[in-house]
Protein backbone atom coordinates (compact mmCIF):
# COMPACT_ATOMS: atom_id res chain seq x y z
CA UNK A 1 0.00 0.00 0.00
CA UNK A 2 1.40 3.38 -1.01
CA UNK A 3 0.55 6.40 1.11
CA UNK A 4 0.39 9.91 -0.22
CA UNK A 5 -1.88 12.36 1.51
CA UNK A 6 -2.68 15.96 2.29
CA UNK A 7 0.40 18.15 2.26
CA UNK A 8 0.56 21.61 3.78
CA UNK A 9 3.06 23.86 2.08
CA UNK A 10 4.17 25.93 5.02
CA UNK A 11 4.41 29.33 3.44
CA UNK A 12 2.16 32.33 3.14
CA UNK A 13 1.99 34.52 0.06
CA UNK A 14 0.34 37.89 0.61
CA UNK A 15 -1.53 36.32 3.51
CA UNK A 16 -2.71 33.47 1.28
CA UNK A 17 -2.20 29.89 2.42
CA UNK A 18 -1.91 27.01 -0.05
CA UNK A 19 -3.25 23.57 0.83
CA UNK A 20 -2.66 20.61 -1.47
CA UNK A 21 -4.84 17.51 -1.15
CA UNK A 22 -4.44 14.30 -3.11
CA UNK A 23 -5.77 10.78 -3.32
CA UNK A 24 -3.29 7.93 -3.58
CA UNK A 25 -3.54 4.50 -5.15
CA UNK A 26 -2.78 1.31 -3.28
CA UNK A 27 -1.70 -1.74 -4.71
CA UNK A 28 -19.08 -0.85 -11.70
CA UNK A 29 -19.48 2.42 -9.99
CA UNK A 30 -22.94 2.13 -8.42
CA UNK A 31 -25.36 4.39 -6.63
CA UNK A 32 -27.13 7.60 -7.53
CA UNK A 33 -27.69 10.93 -5.85
CA UNK A 34 -31.39 10.45 -5.20
CA UNK A 35 -30.81 7.27 -3.18
CA UNK A 36 -28.07 8.51 -0.88
CA UNK A 37 -30.01 9.10 2.30
CA UNK A 38 -31.72 6.65 4.65
CA UNK A 39 -35.15 7.73 5.81
CA UNK A 40 -34.89 10.22 8.68
CA UNK A 41 -31.12 10.70 8.46
CA UNK A 42 -30.01 13.94 10.13
CA UNK A 43 -26.46 15.16 9.47
CA UNK A 44 -26.85 18.20 11.74
CA UNK A 45 -27.51 18.37 15.48
CA UNK A 46 -29.67 21.38 16.31
CA UNK A 47 -28.33 23.02 13.17
CA UNK A 48 -24.70 22.53 14.22
CA UNK A 49 -21.80 20.44 12.95
CA UNK A 50 -22.25 16.84 14.07
CA UNK A 51 -18.80 15.54 13.09
CA UNK A 52 -17.09 13.31 15.67
CA UNK A 53 -14.64 14.99 18.05
CA UNK A 54 -11.69 13.22 16.40
CA UNK A 55 -12.64 14.72 13.02
CA UNK A 56 -13.19 18.32 14.07
CA UNK A 57 -9.79 19.18 12.59
CA UNK A 58 -10.53 17.51 9.26
CA UNK A 59 -11.77 20.58 7.41
CA UNK A 60 -10.24 23.11 5.06
CA UNK A 61 -11.28 26.63 4.12
CA UNK A 62 -14.91 27.26 3.23
CA UNK A 63 -16.05 28.39 -0.18
CA UNK A 64 -17.57 31.86 -0.46
CA UNK A 65 -20.98 30.88 -1.80
CA UNK A 66 -23.06 28.35 -3.70
CA UNK A 67 -23.33 27.07 -6.30
CA UNK A 68 -19.64 27.09 -7.18
CA UNK A 69 -18.97 27.53 -10.89
CA UNK A 70 -16.83 24.62 -12.13
CA UNK A 71 -15.11 24.90 -15.52
CA UNK A 72 -14.14 21.42 -16.67
CA UNK A 73 -11.50 20.77 -19.29
CA UNK A 74 -13.33 20.04 -22.56
CA UNK A 75 -10.78 17.33 -23.39
CA UNK A 76 -12.61 15.14 -20.87
CA UNK A 77 -15.49 15.00 -23.36
CA UNK A 78 -13.37 12.89 -25.68
CA UNK A 79 -13.78 9.26 -24.75
CA UNK A 80 -10.77 7.09 -24.07
CA UNK A 81 -9.79 4.42 -26.66
CA UNK A 82 -11.46 1.80 -24.45
CA UNK A 83 -14.71 3.79 -24.49
CA UNK A 84 -14.42 5.27 -20.99
CA UNK A 85 -16.67 8.34 -20.70
CA UNK A 86 -14.70 10.65 -18.39
CA UNK A 87 -17.17 13.53 -18.79
CA UNK A 88 -19.99 11.32 -17.57
CA UNK A 89 -17.91 10.22 -14.57
CA UNK A 90 -17.24 13.86 -13.65
CA UNK A 91 -20.94 14.63 -14.03
CA UNK A 92 -21.69 11.70 -11.74
CA UNK A 93 -19.30 13.05 -9.10
CA UNK A 94 -20.97 16.45 -9.27
CA UNK A 95 -24.42 14.87 -8.96
CA UNK A 96 -23.33 13.01 -5.82
CA UNK A 97 -22.20 16.14 -3.97
CA UNK A 98 -25.10 18.21 -5.29
CA UNK A 99 -27.47 15.65 -3.79
CA UNK A 100 -25.67 16.00 -0.44
CA UNK A 101 -25.78 19.79 -0.66
CA UNK A 102 -29.47 19.79 -1.59
CA UNK A 103 -30.20 17.72 1.51
CA UNK A 104 -28.22 20.09 3.73
CA UNK A 105 -28.99 23.50 2.25
CA UNK A 106 -31.64 23.08 -0.44
CA UNK A 107 -29.25 24.17 -3.21
CA UNK A 108 -26.60 22.64 -5.45
CA UNK A 109 -22.95 22.82 -4.46
CA UNK A 110 -21.65 22.92 -8.05
CA UNK A 111 -22.69 24.25 -11.43
CA UNK A 112 -20.61 22.73 -14.24
CA UNK A 113 -19.71 23.71 -17.78
CA UNK A 114 -17.09 22.33 -20.16
CA UNK A 115 -14.65 24.64 -21.93
CA UNK A 116 -11.35 24.60 -23.79
CA UNK A 117 -8.54 25.49 -21.40
CA UNK A 118 -5.38 27.37 -22.28
CA UNK A 119 -1.95 25.78 -22.27
CA UNK A 120 -0.94 28.39 -19.69
CA UNK A 121 -3.56 27.07 -17.30
CA UNK A 122 -2.50 23.48 -17.92
CA UNK A 123 1.09 24.32 -17.00
CA UNK A 124 0.30 26.64 -14.10
CA UNK A 125 2.20 26.33 -10.82
CA UNK A 126 -0.80 25.98 -8.48
CA UNK A 127 1.42 26.08 -5.40
CA UNK A 128 1.96 29.80 -6.07
CA UNK A 129 -1.07 31.65 -4.74
CA UNK A 130 0.02 34.81 -6.53
CA UNK A 131 -0.79 33.11 -9.83
CA UNK A 132 -4.34 33.48 -11.11
CA UNK A 133 -6.05 30.13 -11.72
CA UNK A 134 -9.64 30.89 -10.78
CA UNK A 135 -11.29 32.98 -8.11
CA UNK A 136 -13.53 32.62 -5.09
CA UNK A 137 -16.57 31.76 -7.23
CA UNK A 138 -15.01 29.64 -10.00
CA UNK A 139 -12.48 26.83 -10.22
CA UNK A 140 -11.06 24.70 -13.00
CA UNK A 141 -10.82 20.93 -13.41
CA UNK A 142 -7.80 20.23 -15.61
CA UNK A 143 -7.02 17.01 -17.41
CA UNK A 144 -3.37 16.27 -16.73
CA UNK A 145 -1.50 14.42 -19.46
CA UNK A 146 2.07 15.57 -18.94
CA UNK A 147 4.33 13.48 -16.71
CA UNK A 148 6.92 16.26 -16.56
CA UNK A 149 4.40 18.74 -15.17
CA UNK A 150 3.03 16.11 -12.78
CA UNK A 151 6.50 15.37 -11.48
CA UNK A 152 7.18 19.08 -11.00
CA UNK A 153 4.16 19.09 -8.72
CA UNK A 154 5.89 16.30 -6.76
CA UNK A 155 3.41 13.62 -7.80
CA UNK A 156 4.10 10.24 -9.33
CA UNK A 157 2.24 7.23 -10.65
CA UNK A 158 0.46 6.61 -7.35
CA UNK A 159 -1.42 9.94 -7.46
CA UNK A 160 -4.28 10.24 -9.99
CA UNK A 161 -5.78 13.47 -8.66
CA UNK A 162 -4.91 16.58 -6.66
CA UNK A 163 -6.72 19.69 -5.42
CA UNK A 164 -4.89 22.95 -4.74
CA UNK A 165 -6.66 25.57 -2.63
CA UNK A 166 -5.56 29.08 -1.67
CA UNK A 167 -7.29 30.47 1.39
CA UNK A 168 -7.41 33.71 3.31
CA UNK A 169 -8.91 33.99 6.80
CA UNK A 170 -10.46 30.54 6.48
CA UNK A 171 -12.12 31.23 3.12
CA UNK A 172 -11.14 29.97 -0.32
CA UNK A 173 -10.01 32.67 -2.74
CA UNK A 174 -9.13 30.24 -5.56
CA UNK A 175 -8.65 26.56 -6.18
CA UNK A 176 -7.90 24.16 -9.01
CA UNK A 177 -8.30 20.40 -9.48
CA UNK A 178 -6.02 18.22 -11.60
CA UNK A 179 -7.18 14.77 -12.68
CA UNK A 180 -4.79 12.37 -14.41
CA UNK A 181 -6.91 9.56 -15.92
CA UNK A 182 -3.89 7.60 -17.14
CA UNK A 183 -2.79 7.06 -13.53
CA UNK A 184 -5.86 5.09 -12.51
CA UNK A 185 -7.90 2.21 -13.93
CA UNK A 186 -10.85 3.55 -15.92
CA UNK A 187 -13.52 1.96 -13.66
CA UNK A 188 -12.05 3.81 -10.66
CA UNK A 189 -11.93 7.27 -12.26
CA UNK A 190 -15.33 8.25 -10.85
CA UNK A 191 -14.11 7.41 -7.34
CA UNK A 192 -11.13 9.74 -7.81
CA UNK A 193 -13.38 12.52 -9.13
CA UNK A 194 -15.81 12.21 -6.20
CA UNK A 195 -12.88 12.38 -3.78
CA UNK A 196 -11.37 15.52 -5.34
CA UNK A 197 -14.72 17.30 -5.52
CA UNK A 198 -15.04 16.57 -1.80
CA UNK A 199 -11.80 18.47 -1.25
CA UNK A 200 -13.11 21.37 -3.33
CA UNK A 201 -16.01 21.67 -0.88
CA UNK A 202 -13.58 22.01 2.00
CA UNK A 203 -13.30 18.44 3.26
CA UNK A 204 -9.86 17.18 4.22
CA UNK A 205 -9.30 13.43 4.39
CA UNK A 206 -11.43 11.38 6.75
CA UNK A 207 -8.33 10.58 8.81
CA UNK A 208 -4.76 11.81 9.02
CA UNK A 209 -1.88 9.82 7.61
CA UNK A 210 0.86 9.19 10.14
CA UNK A 211 0.54 10.64 13.62
CA UNK A 212 -2.95 11.88 14.38
CA UNK A 213 -4.26 14.54 16.74
CA UNK A 214 -7.10 14.70 19.22
CA UNK A 215 -9.18 16.53 16.60
CA UNK A 216 -7.95 14.56 13.57
CA UNK A 217 -7.59 10.81 14.04
CA UNK A 218 -4.73 8.87 12.50
CA UNK A 219 -5.53 6.43 9.68
CA UNK A 220 -3.06 3.95 11.16
CA UNK A 221 -4.60 0.68 12.35
CA UNK A 222 -8.14 1.56 11.29
CA UNK A 223 -9.99 -1.68 10.51
CA UNK A 224 -11.43 -2.05 7.02
CA UNK A 225 -14.95 -1.77 8.44
CA UNK A 226 -14.35 1.59 10.17
CA UNK A 227 -16.50 4.41 8.79
CA UNK A 228 -13.44 6.64 8.29
CA UNK A 229 -11.81 3.87 6.26
CA UNK A 230 -14.90 3.32 4.13
CA UNK A 231 -15.51 7.03 3.48
CA UNK A 232 -14.91 8.44 -0.01
CA UNK A 233 -12.56 10.93 1.65
CA UNK A 234 -10.20 8.23 2.94
CA UNK A 235 -6.79 9.15 1.45
CA UNK A 236 -6.08 5.85 -0.32
CA UNK A 237 -7.99 3.72 -2.80
CA UNK A 238 -6.98 0.12 -3.51
CA UNK A 239 -6.20 -0.78 -7.11
CA UNK A 240 -5.91 -4.21 -8.74
CA UNK A 241 -5.62 -6.12 -11.99
CA UNK A 242 -9.30 -7.06 -12.07
CA UNK A 243 -12.60 -5.52 -11.01
CA UNK A 244 -12.82 -7.93 -8.09
CA UNK A 245 -9.54 -6.55 -6.69
CA UNK A 246 -10.42 -2.88 -7.14
CA UNK A 247 -11.98 -0.63 -4.52
CA UNK A 248 -14.84 1.65 -5.52
CA UNK A 249 -15.82 4.71 -3.50
CA UNK A 250 -18.06 6.82 -5.67
CA UNK A 251 -20.94 7.48 -3.29
CA UNK A 252 -20.50 9.73 -0.21
CA UNK A 253 -21.32 7.69 2.88
CA UNK A 254 -22.75 8.86 6.19
CA UNK A 255 -19.44 10.11 7.56
CA UNK A 256 -18.78 12.07 4.36
CA UNK A 257 -22.25 13.61 4.54
CA UNK A 258 -21.94 14.51 8.22
CA UNK A 259 -18.67 16.32 7.56
CA UNK A 260 -20.05 18.02 4.44
CA UNK A 261 -22.79 19.51 6.62
CA UNK A 262 -20.03 21.22 8.62
CA UNK A 263 -18.71 23.14 5.60
CA UNK A 264 -21.83 23.69 3.49
CA UNK A 265 -23.67 26.64 4.96
CA UNK A 266 -27.42 26.04 5.33
CA UNK A 267 -29.48 28.29 3.06
Please provide a written account of the structure.
By secondary structure, the chain is of the alpha/beta class. Strands 1, 2, 5, 6, 7, 8, 9 and 10 form an 8-stranded mixed β-sheet that branches. It has a two-stranded antiparallel ribbon with strand order 3-4. Helix content is 20%, strand content 22%. The protein has 6 helices and 10 strands.
Features:
6 helices; two-stranded antiparallel sheet; alpha/beta; about 270 residues; 8-stranded mixed β-sheet
Structural class: alpha/beta
Largest sheet: 8 strands, mixed
Q: Fraction of residues in helices?
A: 10-25%
How many strands? Answer: 10
Poorly predicted parts: 1-16, 28-41
Average pLDDT rating: 84
Rg calc? 17 Å
**Which series of helices and strands comes N to C?**
EEEEEHEHEHEEHHEH
List the helices and strands and how they pair.
Blueprint: E1 7-13, E2 16-26, E3 44-45, E4 48-49, E5 68-73, H1 86-105, E6 110-115, H2 119-122, E7 138-143, H3 147-152, E8 161-168, E9 171-179, H4 189-201, H5 227-230, E10 236-238, H6 254-260
Parallel strand pairs: 2-10, 5-6, 5-7, 7-9
Antiparallel strand pairs: 1-2, 2-8, 3-4, 8-9
Amino acid sequence: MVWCGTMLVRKTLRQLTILVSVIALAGVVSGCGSGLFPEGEDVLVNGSCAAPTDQMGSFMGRVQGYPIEVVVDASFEKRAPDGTDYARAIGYAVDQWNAVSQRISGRDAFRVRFANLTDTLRQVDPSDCNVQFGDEDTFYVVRETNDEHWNKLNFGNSVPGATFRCTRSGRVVRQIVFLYPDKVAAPQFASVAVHEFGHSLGLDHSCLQGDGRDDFRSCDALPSTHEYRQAVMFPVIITGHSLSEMEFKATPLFNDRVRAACVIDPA
